[in-house]
Amino acid sequence: MAEALDLHTVGDLLHHYPRRYAERGELTALAELPLDEHVTVVAQVADARLHTYSGARGRGQRLEVTITDGSGRLQLVFFGKGVHKPHKDLLPGTRAMFAGKVSLFNRKLQLAHPAYELLRGDGDEAVDSWAGALIPIYPATTRLESWKIAKAVDAVLPSARDAADPLPPGLREGRGLAELPDALHKIHRPRTKADIEEARERLKWDEAFVLQVALARRRYADAQLPAVARRPAPGGLLDLFDARLPFTLTEGQRAVSKEIFDDLATEHPMHRLLQGEVGSGKTMVALRAMLAVVDAGGQAAMLAPTEVLAQQHHRSITEMMGDLASWGLWREASPQKGGGGRPEGVTPGGADHATKVVLLTGSMGAAGRRGALLDLTTGEAGIVVGTHALIEDKVRFHDLGLVVVDEQHRFGVEQRDALRGKGKQPPHLLVMTATPIPRTVAMTVFGDLETSVLDQLPAGRSPIASHVVPARDKPHFLARAWERVREEVEGGHQAYVVCPRIGDDEDASGSGGKAAEDLADKRPPLAVTDVAEQLSKGPLAGLRVEILHGRMQPDDKDAVMRRFAAGDVDVLVATTVIEVGVNVPNATVMVIMDADRFGVSQLHQLRGRVGRGSAPGLCLLVTEMPEAAPARQRLAAVAATLDGFELSRIDLEQRREGDVLGQAQSGVRSSLRMLAVIEDEEVIAAARAEATAIVAADPGLEHLPELRTALDALLDKDREQYLEKG
Length: 726
What we know:
Blueprint: H1 2-5, H2 10-14, E1 20-23, E2 38-55, E3 58-68, E4 73-79, H3 84-89, E5 95-105, E6 108-112, E7 115-118, H4 125-129, E8 134-137, H5 146-156, H6 169-174, H7 180-188, H8 193-224, H9 237-244, H10 251-264, E9 271-276, H11 282-295, E10 299-303, H12 307-321, E11 325-327, E12 355-360, H13 366-378, E13 381-386, E14 400-406, H14 413-420, E15 428-433, H15 439-445, E16 450-454, E17 464-470, H16 475-490, E18 494-498, H17 528-537, E19 545-548, H18 554-565, E20 571-574, E21 587-592, H19 600-607, E22 617-623, H20 630-640, H21 644-654, H22 666-669, H23 681-697, H24 705-714, H25 717-725
Parallel strand pairs: 4-6, 9-15, 9-16, 10-13, 10-14, 11-12, 12-13, 14-15, 17-22, 18-20, 18-21, 19-20, 21-22
Antiparallel strand pairs: 1-8, 2-3, 2-5, 3-4, 5-6, 5-7
């Protein structure tokens, strides 16, 4: 059990809940079995045939058993000496539970050598062990079938009465929840469906509440930390910057900025998550926060996940600031040396109030790097934009006051922690994500952060039309897509073509939100290098086509992006390296090849790269998937709405429950067995409120030893550190 299912204690086993329940009189839907997954089904034997065959090793026997549930049929197959027992047991009309991995043979689903447990009514031991009306089906593996787990649960179920109850009695009684031993009995051995509901409601509360207490204690501890209050000086950089803005900030930008400025003015560190729709102007909000900190005598660091993005941010910040940014790269003699040239319209020295904005990435030349490090140490640079290079030991700040982390889900916790450790006191922290996160996920995954939401698009942004292009069913649609690209270019605009893969020399397994059902008969995903060549010679011949992907040299990537931004490239064929932060208002059309290989949120992100200027945007989702495939339904959902929050909900509902909290949250993820983050919004919100009140009244949980025990179980050493580091 420890090896196969990571179950080490009686408590672990008692919290290994059934995935579903089969009723004696009812059979499992065989028509909906997922390929390549381990399943347990309850079904009836329709017929069994023993075949003798001749092979290289002589004669052998193969038993083929067909099982049915009335709506569908499934083939079981046994070979060699393994045929004798099932041949005797699996007679037509017999009901049994079967467990095995679903595979495909001759285009039909089958289970090869499944384990089985007979369900007969003739008084033998099997029936006694399944005496309940509802048969629990447990998450199982090839080495440990559901019914073996059920027998092990029977052995330990009496000790459920000793389970320590993490819910304070007042909370449990006030909400009318079952006692824990009772809930554990009912979830494993229910007599009725009402038993299951009652147990689930109680066990969901345990998970939501213990996790929210852990997060509430984090927030409480953070509130006790000292930080330098950063209040912008009147008439400083921020005021000058605001006075020159060629547009007015949206209502949302003003409201969120106020929340951030209020946090910055306190003497404990801000921990805020800024999430917003694609193109809602998060960078503008973050830049104003950085300028406020510089006005107050501190420094601000912006951490980006890739060099392309760091260079983009550096370029857009210096352009937005104009001569308020004294040029931070003057030590690099020319763009070819990795530092980039002087931003247009910016003179060394800048305005009287100017601050130096430096870029720090791993691939910079030695001279540029030394200069940037010196500017940070002396405090001459008020703002630094960089990649992981900012976290290295050599990097010293004069007075780090604010850390802005872009696209937080790409950063490990340790890296955020290392950067926070560079301030004399903990700096304020602003985390930005461009993937809108449903409220409950934000409360669960980012529960230690206060959340600000930007859901308004700035004036002048154009709507984006999205369409699915079914390339296999209607090839003329794809031909028309390339015509549309040509039309946009002839109208003076530019286009992106996105592919899931770089080229032949890499693994062909693809990327993004692919599912096993979609991959049964699939060619390798399309590659940037191949598609660019085909387009240059074929439908887009005569246009200036270039490529961009993550394995190019950083200088080359930056040079391509500069040419594209300057209008010297008509069509950029790229991987998802352009997914976030790339801002070219003149780009109006995007064609996403093999769109079914990407997740819903990723498609929404990519689409946000067009329609950033005054001309309307167009996004074409090209797929070869048949109309009925789930992947096509995903694409239709993306085409149907521009609401990122709605799409992120769809995305999470379609993913398996284990993925919801993402790899970055692995410490917390395995603790959610019963709680469905999307569906259980009310439970999570209520648990958060209860947890906050309890921690405020008793931060050390001195009066709640059972809750402390449950927390220790949730937060083993690794997870404790994980939460500590934020």
